[in-house]
Amino acid sequence: MTMTGNTSLTKPEAIPDWPAPPVQYREPLTIGPLRLSSRFHLAPLAGYTNWPFRLSVREIGGVGLCTSDLVNARAILEGARKTMSLLATDPRERPLFVQIFGAKAEELAAAARWLIDHHLADGIDINMGCPVRKVVKTGGGSALLCDTSGGTVELVRKVVEAVAPVPVTVKMRLGWDDQNWTAPFFARAFEEVGVAAVTIHGRTREQGFSGTVRLEGIRQVVEAVRHIPVFGNGDVRTIMDAARMISVTGCHGIAIGRGALADPWIFRQLDAWVRTGHPGPRPTYHERLQFMRLHLRRLVEWKGDEKYGCIQFRKVATWYCKALRLPKKVQQRLVMLSNLREFEEIIGPYVELGPPPGWTEHEAMGTPVPVPAGPISYW
Ligand SMILES: Cc1cc2nc3c(=O)[nH]c(=O)nc-3n(C[C@H](O)[C@H](O)[C@H](O)COP(=O)(O)O)c2cc1C
Q1: Which of 375, 29, 73 is nearest to 232 (CA)?
Q2: 130 annotated active-site
Q3: 366 pLDDT band (50/70/90 cuts)?
Q4: Topology of domain 26-276, per CATH?
Q5: Is the dihedral of CA 240, 64, 262, 367 positive or negative?
Q6: What's this model's pTM, rounded to 2 decimal places?
Q7: Considering only Cβ atoms within 10 Å of each terminal Cβ, which end of the chain, N or C, has fewer?
Q8: Which atom of ligand 1 lies at the shortest distance from residue 235's CA?
Q9: pLDDT per residue over 297-352, tens digit each?
Q10: What are the domain boundaries of the chain?
């Protein structure tokens, strides 16, 4: 910043110098026949990335693609009621990939075909990252990264063939443990059988959600493929994190999970940064309140029942309270919420009053939001 004459001019509240945006990110990215409007992708978060959240985040802008929570392939074929609810979508949230898990090629292929025949997805994502014991003990999730002898690649081939020309992607980890970073091998092999893109979470199964994301592992996956896009994933919460992920790994896009729970505006900011070099305006206090209300209303719509929708909302209420700096008593009431009228009663005074003294958009962006570390705290 150039200072002229007036020495009382100080730099306003720590405005960071944004890193130069990667020029290649301005070019459209395609996954098979789909052209994405941005290279930033909402990663699946079981229990959170249902249509109410996906659509609300998309409407803010900057999201190129969303993927559903993981869904059991067998349960799809059985028509399980809970599974059908997970598959619920809204016509406005396209393109959408549905993520399936399982260990049997025939089941995965049939479930993928069913989803496409029922117009529930624009693409299929196969889960090879889930570390949860219940999933890996049946041979699904990250356990699939252990079979380099042909079984896993064959399974993927069958899914690709079942839905062609609809794109199939795979979301995986680096491998089972540090002695077995099988992801680069698989990325190449998957490309050869027709996979349209891969997402790589830079941790091993053994790591769970602890430790740091190994960017060098993501880079190895990027270097292993020929043409298909690779989405880097893990611990991206800010523009600085994204810039680092892109510059170190060369990834073609970024998938963001927990960072979007903590800050649903992250995609809009990243997209603006890519296009203009600056992330644009931060969400205001009222925008945040409005987003919270919309999320709740859609959860109620999704569940078709006020009480159940409110129960879903309880687990996210705390995050909104933190960023808005709402008093503890508000938080305590919201985590017990049971209907929409009560929500309006609780929130009404804060809508009227506006932000508490000292609240700034800048500070709200930096508030640590205690989003879950992993799908369950123990596996
Ligand atoms: C609560 C929770 C649920 C998750 N559910 C899924 C899932 O259904 N499918 C999947 O592939 N990954 C799942 N993940 C992993 C995330 O998609 C992502 O790979 C991981 O959290 C690292 O990225 P992030 O730091 O941007 O969140 C889950 C993670 C969390 C925290």
Answers
A1: 29
A2: yes
A3: confident
A4: TIM Barrel (3.20.20)
A5: positive
A6: 0.94
A7: N
A8: 25
A9: 999 999 999 999 999 999 999 989 999 999 999 999 999 999 999 999 999 999 99
A10: 26-276, 285-366
